[in-house]
Amino acid sequence: MKRYIIIALTMLIMATASAQEAIFKKYAGQEGISVVNISKSMLGLMSSKAKGNKKIKDLAGKLERIRILSCENKSLVPKVKKDAMQYVGKKGYDELMSTQEGSEQVYILQHSLGGNNYEYVVLSIEKNEVSLINIIGHLTIDEIKSISQM
Amino acid sequence: MTTQEINTLLKNYDEGTTTEAQERELRRLAAARVLPDEWNEYFAALDDVVEVPDGLEQRLEARIDALDEVEQAKHHHLWRRMAGIAATVAILLSVGLYVHNQRQIQEILNKDTYTDPQAAYNETELVLTQMANHLNKGSEGVDALEQMSDILNSKS
């Protein structure tokens, strides 16, 4: 009986976390770490309420969510970097590109969620700073690249 | 037996130095009402006392030890149960706190950072533009390599 209770509790704990959100959950609320969340409803509001480039507003309307984690806490940078790097080389995450500019390393990864829905991960690593951008939406690479050509 | 001998015997009995035979003799004299009255009554009262059966002391000690063991076993079992209950409560509390904490974090993550759509747009534009620039920069390198490859192929 005790064994079943322990198994049930373990499953309950595991059910509360998902692989995609684990890194955000781990560091959200910690000192020196900021988390930005832009939900689907806010992304939808932009097209009517915000002033700016129409193309970007149209693309924003295709997104489900944008989430950004920035770490400027020197003591946490190595840990966050290690957790963020798990995306690189992770099964299902294709590395679209990686660049190095000076001390900054940038990785862009794509993960298919099915039905033209993609998750993009932009990982930027510097000596004392790490940022992780997570974008989910019906957005292709060409559509994103087209922003630079506006 | 003379009066002096009886007094000596009673004195020795009082001091606890008489033998069993001497004690039996004193009891016999008391039954015959030869001793002083108080001694006759004393030995008569002793005769009313029931003799302790053989081995009773050992049996009582064994019984007390057995009861003591049962009592200790009960306490041990009780402590184990209490420790088990305390451990279960501690685990449930920890799990409850963890789940509550995770829910709070999830609420933070799900909540919009910006209440102003313009601020949200500005952040979105920045993110998408940076991403586009990086992607295009990466593509430029690939395009350059492809061009060089085409040139080399056309020359060969």
Features:
heterodimer, A: 150 residues, alpha+beta, six-stranded antiparallel sheet, globular, B: 156 residues, mainly alpha, 3 domains, 5 helices, rod-shaped
Task: Give a quick summary of the entry.
Chain A is built from six helices and six strands; from the N terminus they run ααβααβαββββα. Chain A is α+β, with helices and mostly antiparallel strands. In chain A, α3 runs antiparallel to α4 (54-60).
Give an overview in words.
- The complex is a heterodimer of chains A (150) and B (156).
- Chain A is of the alpha+beta class and 150 residues long.
- Chain A has one domain (19-149).
- Chain A has helices at 2-15, 22-27, 40-49, 54-60, 77-84, 141-145, and strands at residues 33-38, 63-71, 93-101, 104-114, 117-126, 129-137.
- Chain A has a six-stranded antiparallel beta sheet with strand order 1-2-6-5-4-3.
- The longest helix of chain A has 14 residues, at 2-15.
- Chain A is globular.
- Chain B is mostly helical and 156 residues long.
- Helix content of chain B is 84%, strand content 0%.
- At the A-B interface, α1, β1, α3, α4 and β2 of A face α4 and α5 of B.
Helix percentage range of chain B: over 70%
Largest Cβ-defined interface? A-B, 49 and 36 residues
Query: End-to-end span of chain A in angstroms?
Result: 65 Å
Structure class of chain B:
mainly alpha
- Poorly predicted parts of chain A: 14-19
Largest sheet of chain A: 6 strands, antiparallel
Compute the average pLDDT of chain B: 85
Order of helices and strands of chain B: HHHHH
Counting DSSP H or I runs of 4 or more residues, the number of helices of chain A is: 6
What string, H for helix and E for strand, traces the elements of chain A in order?
A: HHEHHEHEEEEH
In percent, how much strand structure appears in the residues of chain A? Answer: 35-45%
Strand element count of chain A: 6
Strand content of chain B: under 5%
Structural class of chain A: alpha+beta
Query: Numbering strands along the chain, what is their spatial order in the largest sheet of chain A?
Result: 1-2-6-5-4-3
